[in-house]
Model the fold of this input.
Amino acid sequence: MYAKFPEGAAQRTDPQAAAEVVYDAVVVGGGISGALIALRLSNAGKRVLMLEAGPAEDLTLRGYEGYLNRFYSAIGKDNQAPYPVVPNAPMPRGSDARRITPGAPDASAYIVQNGPFATDTTYTRVLGGTTMHWEGKTLRMLPEDFRMRTLYGEGADWPLTYEDLAPYYNEAEREIGVSADVEDQAYLGITFDEGYVFPMKGLPLSYLDRTVAKDLDGMPVELDGERRELRVRPFPQGRNGIPNPAYDGGKGYVPRGAVSAYQVEVGERCQGNDNCVPICPVQAKYNAGKTLALALQSGRVDLVAQAVAHKVHVDERTRRVTEIEYRHYDRPDSPGFNTVRARGRLFVLAANAVENPRLMLASGLHGSSGLMGRNFMDHAYLLAWGLLPEVAGTFRGTICTGGIADLRGGRFRSRQAAFTIDIHNDGWGWARGAPMTDLIGLVDSGGRYGESLRQALVDKVSRQLQLAFMVEVPANPSNRITVSPDYTDKLGNMRPVLTYDIPEYTMRGVAYARQLSKRIFARLGAEDHTVYNPNFWGYAVHDGEGYELRGGNHLAGTHVMGRDPSTSVVDPDQRCWDYENLYMVGGGSMPTVGTSNVTLTVAALCLRSVRAMLAQLDSETAPVDISADRHHAASLSGEVSR
Amino acid sequence: MSSPPFEDFLSLSVDLTAFEATDLLGTGMAHKYLAKVRAACGDEALIALLAAHRAARTDAAGDAGSLTRSPLDRDLLDRALRHRIFSDDRLGPVARNIIKLWYAGMWYALPPEWTDRYGAGTAVGTSTVTAASYQEGLLWRAIGANPPGAKAPGYGSWAKPPRIADRYLKGARR
Done:
């Protein structure tokens, strides 16, 4: 299916004119959450204004190729390498992370890190959001992930069950276009509707996965009296594979190709570029641009880019949001901006689990529960790396095709964190910068050139196995996003301040993960090369052993949902308890992250919330009083001096 | 001073990389890489490097003395390259950088002790050559892979063993 970003869609909306329109919904953020909501609301005939902080030339072919060229030309190819650095809408970068000295916050980069633990977690502030650089793994959460407090006395219970969310998982898998096979994905209580198949067939495991599986499959593990056997299992993927003709009761599925590109060579099917992060060159991987293009085609969605939400204005009497004040900058590299307002019947904050609470807190809205910004979660990644006894053809495929999911659930979760294990097709790239670091070492200090270099490269790179343990971090109110007027960006917006520590519960899972990695390497006959550097910014010690921990970019928990307004920020529809026309959507609503990458669940939650939004719009037929909050009208036009 | 001959640069590159001249020319990068080396190190160092390479090949050709026609003794050539180039303070770092340039498509900054002593060209810092140079890195071909993000091998190809010639599968040895 060919989806085209409508010509001029990023420019056709005049912000000043739009300020005079009362939209059905104002959506802050052009990532997957905002895109899905805008698409569904517009399909239902509603008018939507979308504000995107980043520039929006991105969904044109030229814009996308600009990303690619920036990536090819970049010296450091980190997960933000393709995307423009925009001082007016700054974004965190993995390379920002520094070890934090106690009592001295690191304010050198966009996210002010208060510690005690430093993280390199990132998100991408461009149209399409972090789905531009996401890897595309789309695991459903386990049923037990929704009942952690009841079952294991750890973390929180959701106000929803797996069964409540399952129909929306189905929808999300359609929207994203997931490739997987049900027989591989029905485990640890995950169930599917009778006869369900994924839109596309599972992507084949890599040769590396198969080499590992040959020896690993059947490995016994006993934990808390539960015995299980490990196996290498394919992951569900948000990228195009072979359509399953049995999908949708035999109607089949038409993959969504690249946006605004010719479909002869690109987009229809993953080609094995091994570059899902930071950018799929052919857009076989889902990005929110695919959804945005459809939403914009409706003609009912207006997009204003370079529009950074500055303040949420509320009327405490009516308990409604009256408008969102945003700063619209003309040029990415110059600090000039206009202050503009966005008005609507509903307001949807879909910026992400850092930016949503940042905006609310910067607006002075701490929430009646006091939980705004609290319970920040991510996954803690522990890497272990070794050399297999044989050449396994590392560095081919998607970034990750398979892994071990058998320790995602079980009784042990009352004591230690669960994890999913990824087998990284890009070898030790994440842990040690392979293969460039191998090349440099072999040439500069290994005396290698010519034939001996070629042999050594195969020997050192093509045998690499890196296991990434994605370890659960439970909600903790102390882990939080705050703001402070001491820290602002170029536009005068308060920057997020992150206070983060890794709980003992997670560290016990980390320690177990390291022990398990040693057993796995021994079973495979692999040389374990894992060494954790005490000077690493994310070095953490537990029971006398040190580990390098990395962030997962799986932001969650900062406006948790619940059934009780005193212990949650949003209700099960992601509607703010405090303001009846405000929805805060995305990972921030999740009470637990389990051991799934969050995007699929975020998408399912948003698709579910759309029903509530539509019901609310249809029930609130009376005209909305928009005159209540005009006391600051004088500041709403023209250039604001700073 | 005459400019460094392209043919000599290519011949040096073949010995340094163990890729055939046709492979190197096929990248479309050879002239750009020569220009990069000249810009980063200056002609003098490069001309000296090319002369040392010619001399090494002469050493390895024994008495015949011909540059290209007679079969080279690989062990002698290896010894001569190590003695004349890799162990040389001025030529060693440049030669190693040329290897990395071909394999990574990236010019890595020369060590400061080199630039302190022999001077810095205009393009001394770490930099990519063009967006295409990354895609043409020989490293990826050496390990039977594509440069991540380019030259995709096709759906499902990753399930099969890598295409790496047998002589490179036995582990490293001289």
Observations:
- The longest strand of chain A covers residues 337-349.
- The radius of gyration of chain A is 24 Å.
